[in-house]
Amino acid sequence: MTDPEAREKRVLDAVKQRRERVNDAIPEELPITDPERLYEASRYLLDAGGKRLRPTVLLLVAEALADADADDVDYRSFPSLNDSVVDVMAAAVSVEVIQSFTLIHDDIMDDDDLRRGVPAVHREYDLETAILAGDTLYSMAFEIMLETGAPADRTVRALDVLASTCTKICEGQALDVEFETRSEVLPEEYLEMVEHKTAVLYGASACVPALLLGADDETVEQLYGYGIDVGRAFQIQDDVLDLTVPSEQLGKQRGSDLVEGKQTLLTLHARNQGVDVDSLVDAESVEAVTESEIDDAVAELEAAGSIDYARETAADLVESGKDRLQVLPDNEQRYLLEQLADYLIERGY
Amino acid sequence: MTDPEAREKRVLDAVKQRRERVNDAIPEELPITDPERLYEASRYLLDAGGKRLRPTVLLLVAEALADADADDVDYRSFPSLNDSVVDVMAAAVSVEVIQSFTLIHDDIMDDDDLRRGVPAVHREYDLETAILAGDTLYSMAFEIMLETGAPADRTVRALDVLASTCTKICEGQALDVEFETRSEVLPEEYLEMVEHKTAVLYGASACVPALLLGADDETVEQLYGYGIDVGRAFQIQDDVLDLTVPSEQLGKQRGSDLVEGKQTLLTLHARNQGVDVDSLVDAESVEAVTESEIDDAVAELEAAGSIDYARETAADLVESGKDRLQVLPDNEQRYLLEQLADYLIERGY
């Protein structure tokens, strides 16, 4: 085992290498055609950046299954577990496109102004265009997933995962909105919401390549579970980062979840510890809140042990996810998927 | 050939019979589960009614191909052109669900308050819920289409049609919004917009059963063309009805297209005839317009021959669509599909 910094560099290099390939593929799968304004708006967030973690998971799983490496393979003509080839890059772009669609619509629903340091699509364009851009990405994700060249029976299963994933994301977002107006949310309910809103797309990213390449059902199931565990951990870590990372690095106001009264695993824990969560921040809007007000709120959550609790829960989920990777061949890509899971909860932002 | 009234009754009875079956199937395919508010909102417009023309076209094409009749077959276990059976009702519900999703999002974009005589979903619920309800229907339509039990290769083709149809609907809606701010729109551009916004879903409705049941490519193509022709005619007729049917019957303000500056084939024709279309209605909002103002505008459009021109264009499209039905066996269902095309442009509302 190498030292933590070397490990982190290795996983970050792996992510970067695949991110660049995904970035090259996005305009190939989503060219800007007529009507141009619609397609520009659809591409706006995708072009603004993003870590491409979901497509990277998808590509790494494909590589692990095929015992191949990014350097040696053509993702567009990737060796399946039998004789055929599959365009796993199309599948990778498809899940990123779904992610982008949900961000565009979520930003409208949450009335967020910024995303990835640039204006949200409904701010840069307008409400109508943002709704339509999301809707366009939605169907394009299916069109793209239909073009991997995998045998029809596998394509049907992959589409089934994609469609039910989208439904669950909507259910999760609906619960998230509902929780904002409820005085009590049970931790199980919170975790269910998180699973629906975030983790299912990681689940899909991890299991879709197994489906397309023809892996057995046990492998598909464990990989889905890896994605779910890691996705849950990722969201919990996001909630932690919302409180602990400076606004400039976050690309949005630190502590905005608290200001907006969002329930997270952190606030649930704090409530159980007797913290008056609703009074942690007095400011009524993200624009009005001060850094020192957020500092005080964070100190109180820290004192209640809530930040540690969230970090530990995320760490447990990551361990569970890593265990599931035993279904993969023991190779460098499996190691990277394990490290990626660790990185998701160790990352600074 | 029977007299027009008897013909109309025959086609209306056929539509009604299939509409009832579709209405029964909708709650089976889209049960109200948790989170309930989301699913209630998703079902709201579907439950408010609708003629179910698209699923009726789908079921009639299936019946025509199989030489079967609604009375004699189980749509859930429908005879394919080889030995297998297919749930064509699931496919029928799927296209209606897509239609409902587009209505919910269109009403937000057009800021329409009423739909089918009830409040639009974003009025009855709220913006967030309406966006999410549409998004949920979107993925549910794919989930439902994935469950017809058709062989995987046919399912893939049907999903391909569904996905590209959704993309085209978005493109059409984007053009529609863009046209409202443009001073000149060419008739070809208008027809392209209409085809994308409306006709493609009729095209999908007509060709998907052929794909699922295993018809040959020529049949699939001609049926798609039937849907496109009929869908274009339907939209043109809708534009005519917006001007000629009393508001109570329409379920919304008569002439609202004119008030909102919407370009239609009618206004394009009138403009070419030298009519100052932008000054036809002074009122700035649907709430402010008077019936007599609409009456005067309609009289001017009539004098310019624009209403007749739209009606004739629709009639030509219907004839073209009917010709394409020659690929179907000569049976009662083909006759009903011909009559249905006629009905779409003869209907009062």
TrEMBL record, chains A, B:
Domain of life: Archaea
Key word Cell membrane present: no
Any Pfam family: polyprenyl_synt
GO molecular function per UniProt: metal ion binding; prenyltransferase activity
Keywords of the record: Magnesium, Metal-binding, Transferase
SUPFAM superfamilies to which the protein is assigned, alphabetical: Terpenoid synthases
InterPro entries per record: Isoprenoid_synthase_dom_sf (IPR008949), Polyprenyl_synt (IPR000092), Polyprenyl_synt_CS (IPR033749)
Any one of the GO BP annotations: isoprenoid biosynthetic process
Cofactor dependency: Mg(2+)
Family classification: Belongs to the FPP/GGPP synthase family.
PANTHER family found in the cross-reference section: GERANYLGERANYL PYROPHOSPHATE SYNTHASE (PTHR12001), SHORT CHAIN ISOPRENYL DIPHOSPHATE SYNTHASE (PTHR12001:SF85)
Protein name per its UniProtKB record: Geranylgeranyl diphosphate synthase, type I
Lineage start: Archaea, Methanobacteriati, Methanobacteriota, Stenosarchaea group, Halobacteria
